[in-house]
Structure formats: C-alpha cells, structure tokens
Amino acid sequence: VIDLGLSPAHERLRSDVRAAAVDTLRPLRHRTDADGCLSDAVSKALLGIDALQEADPGQGTVDAAAFCHAAESLGWGDPSIAYAWTTTRQVAWLLATCGSDEQKDRYLSRFGDSAITPASLLLYEGFGRAPAELTTVARRDGDGWILDGEKTAVAFAGQGHLSVIVARDEEGALIAFVLDSLEGVAFAGENDRRIALSGVAIASAAAIQGLRVGDDAVLSAGTTLERAVGVCRLALAATCLGIADATTRYAADWSIERIAFGRPLAGFQGVSFVLADLFMEIESTRIGLGNALSVLSATDATPLDAGQIDELVSPIVGQASHLLRDAAREGVELMGVHGVITEHPAELIFRAAPLLASIDFDPLHNPLVVR
Amino acid sequence: MDFELSPELTEFGRTLKEWGVQAIRPYARRADEEHSLPANAADIVDTCPVPLPRFDRPGSALPSFSDGDGVRDLVFYEMSSYCDAWLSEALNAGIGHTVVKLLGNPDQVKKWYEPIATRGGRTAFGMSEPGAGSDTGGITTTAVRHGDEWVINGAKMYCSLGAVADYIVVFATTDKAAGRSAIKAFVVERDNPGVCVVRANEEKLGLRCWVTSQMAFDDCVVPAANLLGSAGGSAAAASGQSAALNALNGNRPNVSAISIGFAQAALDTTTELLSEHRGSYPPHRWSLVRTQLENMSAALDRSRRLNYVAQWNRTYDAGSAQRRAASIAKAYGPPTSERVIRYCMQLLGPEGTSKDILLEKWYRDVKILDIFEGTGQIMRMLISRDMMGRAAAA
C-alpha cells in the first residue's frame, strides 16, 4: 500500500533537529572553522538536542529513515559538525545493524562518551568505485584475516576510538571488520589543512598493507552488510541534501528581504526561478532518498544483490552531490558580494561543497555539466 | 574568422606564464593566508622578463601588438591569473582615475588623472553599498550641497583599494527623489576628514589579497569642484552612474579571462595528478575521465573565443554589439571556469581540497568573478534587453 507520509515521530525529529541546528550549531561555525577542531561546545550543543539522541545509531537505534532525517537536519547547522556526526554514525550504523551482541556491547557504548566520538569508516576508495567494485581485499589467514588495499576520505584518521574497514573477501563478497585501532594503516593527508571541514581530520589516502585482524572483528556479512553500507552512503547524501536545503533557504529568505530595482529580489524571475529549480531538485532528491531507504529497509521483500543495491543508491548519492554543488554556487551568487563575505553561511557552504561532493564521487553519476 | 594570435603576442603570453609559475605562484598560498601581497612583491615583479603595467612604475605599460590592445589584455589577464591572483593586485592602480578621465572636466583630468598616469599611484572606486549592489540606482550615500562644498554621508563596501588609494571616486545621490540621474561621482581624498576605513580588507571567500574595503563617510566635506564634470565636463557626466557602468562594460571580457586563467591552471594541475593515478581507474571510468578533461578544455576555449569577439567588437564597434558581446563573455566565462575547477576537485577526491595544492584556492578565487563588475543575472538582463528590448527580462 502506498504511503508517502512521514510518521509524526520523524516529522518531529526533522523539525527539532533542524531548529536546533540553526539556533545552536550554525553560530558555532566560525569557531569550528578557525579552531580546526570540534570543541566541547560542539559536543555539548549536540548532546542538548534530545531528538538527535533518539535517532542516533550510536545509541543503538536501528531506524534508517531516522538516521538519515537526523543527518539531513543537522546539515542546517554547520557543515563540519554535520559531517562529523554523520561519518561517526556511519560506523555506528554498521555496528548496530551488523555487529554481534558482543561487538555491540564492546563498541557501541563508546558512542556514549561524546556526541562526536572519533570513529573512522574505511569504505570509500575513490576513482568512482561503488561498494560492488571495491578492491580492498580480505584473505583468510588461519584463524584471522589479512587485509590489503587503499582507502580515501577517512575521517578522524589516526584519532579513531574505533574503526570499520569494508573490503571484499576472496569470493568477492562484501566483508567488514571492526577494529580498536588502525596501527599498520598508513594515512596520508590527515593533517592537511583543507578548504573546509577542518575539524574532521580527513585523510586523502589510507594504505592498508598486510593488516592482520582476528575473526572476532568480522561483522555480519551478506545482504545485511550490503544494505547497511547502502544506508551509510545515503546518510552522507542526506547530509549533502540538508546543507543544500539550508543554503537555498537562506538565499531565498535573502531574496525576500533584499530590495533591488524597487522590489524584492524574489520578484525577479531570474532569481526566483533559480531558487524554484533548486527547491524542485531538493524535493526530488529527498523523495529519491526516501525511496531508496524504504527499499533497503524492506528486508522481507525481494532480495537485492550488491549490484542492485549500488544501482539503487549510487544515483541518489550522485544527485545529492550535484544538488549540493549547485545550491552552494547559487547560494553565494544570489547574495552578490554579501555571499562571499564570511558574515553569512553561504561562504562556508560554498567551501564545504566540493569536499563533501568528492567523498563518494563517481563520474558516471556526476557528469561534467558545462555549456 | 581567425582566432590565431600573432607569434609576438603568443610569445608574450608564454613568457609571462612561464615566469609567473616560477616567480609568482610560490607566494600564492601565503598571499591568500595573510590577505596581503608578499612584502617583496615589487622586487619579485621586477624580475619579469616582459613589460608590465605597474602602478609604482610611472610610464610602464603593456607592449602593443598587431592583435590590438583588447586581445592583448585578454592574454595578459589570463596568464597573470594562471600564475596567481596576487600579480594583478601588485600591479593594480585601480579604476578611480579612469572614471575621472571619463567623467571629469579638463581641470579635473589634469588634477586627478594625469598625476596617476604619469607619476603612478592607486585610486579607488566606491559604488557598492551594504544595501545596494547590482541596483546602483539604490545608492543611499548622499551628497548635499552647502555653498561651495558638498557634504557626503554614507557607507560603501567592496570598495576596491579603498584603504590604500590616493583618492576614492565615491558615487552618491544628490537628490534621492530624482532617481538615477541624481547619482554623481565625487573625488574624495583618502585623508579627507570624515573618511573612515571601517575594515581595510573584508574577510572574504577568495581573492583575499585583493584589497576591498568597507568605508564610511561621516559628514565628509569636499569642495564643489570635486564633483566630476561639474563645469565643462563630458556629456556622460550628466549621469555619473551610467558612465561608470559603461566603463565597467569594457573590462568584463578581462574578468572572464582572469577566470579562465584560474580554470586552466586547475585543469593542468588535475590532468597531471590524475595521470599518476591512471591505473587505479577501471577502464570505462578512465575513458570517461579523459573525455571530461577534454570537454573542460573545450569549454575554456569557447570562453576564450567569446572574449576575443567581445574585445574585437570593442575595438571596431562601440555600439550595442560590443555591449552584448561583453555581457555574453562575462556571463559565460566565470561560471564555466568555476564548474571546471569544481569538477577538477571532485575528480581528485579529498586530495583536491587540500591546501597543499592550489585548486581549492582557485575555486575560492574564481567565484567573485561571476559577481563583481556585473552579476550573472545582470548580464542576462543586459543580453535579454539587447536582443528583445526593454520589455524583456523583468
């Protein structure tokens, strides 16, 4: 039966987290950007958002839609904080959905220590590779495994209290491991200063060479893991969506208040149609995201193989990435010189957009668009 | 049509580019982070093997070529931004004195234009305000006549060189009820009482070493003779606003050329880095990436050709074809360049966003080029009106 509405709980989650993101997290953006780290004030502010705790996979909540609603709504605050929360909760999601009881007891409790528990996800490999094409390999070695490969876009590199590495086994099936530390993994670029997201210590590369891990580190595999990885990718897309929505709304509000040539900017089609196109794309992306989450969550329905999950998820990831780039651009453009000065969030979002949009980037789904 | 540059201009551009990559680019990051030019900027520029137009070297100028000054300027601006944006700022004399030349009477030109042209110096242009950007008719800075003086009150933002210029050409309304025709240009010496530098250089996304100032004018009294065109000036001075906007029109293809310099630098850097990772791509994706690189190069060539046409029209046709071509060039080039740089960053992944390389800086630098000297929306409005009359593009 078709049901396109949100539950009251999800509606409340979205509205509460979004309001808190705008009111309490957005004002922290300058400090986060300047400090290059996420301060105690950030953790305190996040912990003060009750609705966020209820959706948090780090607290053991297994509700893919709630996870993504929270990630999207946090995007209305500060991109760095939103990404930090999302990427650490990607790790939590894999544990909450694929971990054994023992693994959950041991690792999920760490997410209670702080709202931003440093946790690293070693999933992305760059070069457009979707999970079905990962080249990091896990080989059986007695009672353990040997891992080899190279990852990119690893947040909290070298700082992680726990990490999950996603690879493929010798038969080509997806397999994931939870680890306390990543000794033996050589990071590159984790200390680089970047255009944005400066509090998240993103490594450009993580070389995994002959890393030996025990059997007790293996998470549940099969379709459960493939679906969980799909949800993780959609959570990042949701963050991009929320940030895009926020900067579009900010520009729209500006266009209502700003008077030029005798009327509000919004009174000009050259402005309002650009915003309308963005709002249309935001809606389309949100619907696509919801649909993909619905399919991934319907575990009783027709089984999906890894390729089908990629085909379901990758276009939404690409769409959200493209949307963020466009919204970030227009968010600055529509505000004129006010858009490029740091008083307004559009400037920071413009900087964050190419980094967020490059993490799970596939040129097949994100073609170049120039005239 | 023949878009081939003369061998002399080609060589000029190549020499400037090769020198700049070695001499200018190493200082790019520091200039960005410190929001200022290198302390030894003049010494560095002294080493350039080709003549440059320098505000601190009276009589210096770009050489002439058979291609014409307009096309030469395009090559100069593209190559200088390819090296880095700080080179332009190190040379920048501002445009206040060119407005004086355009609007001023002979005495004013002699007093304020000729010294800058002959002895050097820098001049500022104060038009944008916190509440008035594209709509210059919305300027609220006022100029009130009291006897032989004008009293100016108001605020300006994004005032190029405002904090360091010898003088600022300030646009103000002499009668709010009279609309655009009452907007006039005044020469205001920077050390004039009532001139306040609120913020010497704004905190901004890119082009951080380009000085753009927030200025306040608080009961700033200037002689009546500082109103440009006040006696015996050009007819254009009857509307200082429209004359100033026409002056901007001629520079729009150059702004596009600056954006192409950034984008070409990004594309060259990306191509080099990607080729090191070629083996990591699945074949079908590498084929796509290679095609995208070629498409980006082709897009930049399209931008260049539009610029050439605009400057050609500027030289040989001062009419509406020139205005339209300049608007098209400005509307097309900067956003195309921005998309190219952004896509390069995505192709490189997080590596492309590191401050260890300059892509992220070029991405920040290029954005304002789609805004100042006429936003993309204003350019489209101008094109629409040129093609369809004033009823278009409401």
Order of adjacent strands in the largest pleated sheet of chain B: 2-3-7-6
Mean pLDDT of chain A: 94
Low-confidence stretches of chain A: none
**Average pLDDT, all residues of chain B:** 92
Distance between the termini of chain B: 35 Å
* Count of separate DSSP helical elements of chain A: 12
Radius of gyration of chain A, whole Å: 20 Å
Q: H/E series of chain A, N to C?
A: HHHHHHHEEEEEEEHEEHHHH
Give the secondary structure arrangement, pairings included:
The complex is a heterodimer of chains A (371) and B (394).
Chain A: H1 8-25, H2 29-35, H3 40-47, H4 50-55, H5 64-74, H6 79-98, H7 101-107, E1 119-122, E2 137-141, E3 144-151, E4 162-169, E5 174-179, E6 185-188, E7 205-214, H8 222-257, E8 259-260, E9 263-264, H9 269-297, H10 306-333, H11 337-340, H12 345-359
Helix pairs in contact in A: 1-5, 5-6, 5-8, 6-8, 8-9, 8-10, 8-12, 9-10, 10-12
Chain B: H1 7-23, H2 28-34, H3 41-46, H4 69-83, H5 85-91, H6 96-103, H7 106-119, E1 123-126, E2 142-146, E3 149-160, E4 167-173, E5 183-189, E6 195-199, E7 212-223, H8 240-276, H9 283-316, H10 320-348, H11 359-367, H12 376-388
Parallel strand pairs in B: 1-4
Antiparallel strand pairs in B: 2-3, 3-7, 4-5, 6-7
Helix pairs in contact in B: 1-4, 4-5, 4-8, 4-9, 6-7, 6-8, 8-9, 8-10, 8-11, 9-10, 10-11, 10-12
What do these coordinates show?
The complex is a heterodimer of chains A (371) and B (394). Chain A is globular and about 75 Å long. In chain A, strands 1, 2, 3, 4, 5, 6 and 7 form a seven-stranded mixed sheet that branches. The N and C termini of chain A lie far apart (43 Å). The mean pLDDT of chain A is 94. The longest helix of chain A has 36 residues, at 222-257. Chain A has helices at residues 8-25, 29-35, 40-47, 50-55, 64-74, 79-98, 101-107, 222-257, 269-297, 306-333, 337-340, 345-359, and strands spanning 119-122, 137-141, 144-151, 162-169, 174-179, 185-188, 205-214, 259-260, 263-264. In chain A, strand 8 (259-260) and strand 9 form a beta hairpin. Chain A is built from twelve helices and nine strands. Chain A is an alpha+beta fold. Chain B has 394 residues and is α+β, with helices and mostly antiparallel strands. In chain B, 50% of the residues lie in helices and 13% in strands. Chain B is built from twelve helices and seven strands. Chain B has a four-stranded antiparallel sheet with strand order 2-3-7-6, with no helix packed on it. Chain B has a three-stranded mixed sheet with strand order 1-4-5, covered by helices on one side. Classes of the chains: A alpha+beta (371), B alpha+beta (394). Chains A and B meet through strand 8, helix 9, helix 10, helix 11 and helix 12 of A and helix 9, helix 10, helix 11 and helix 12 of B.
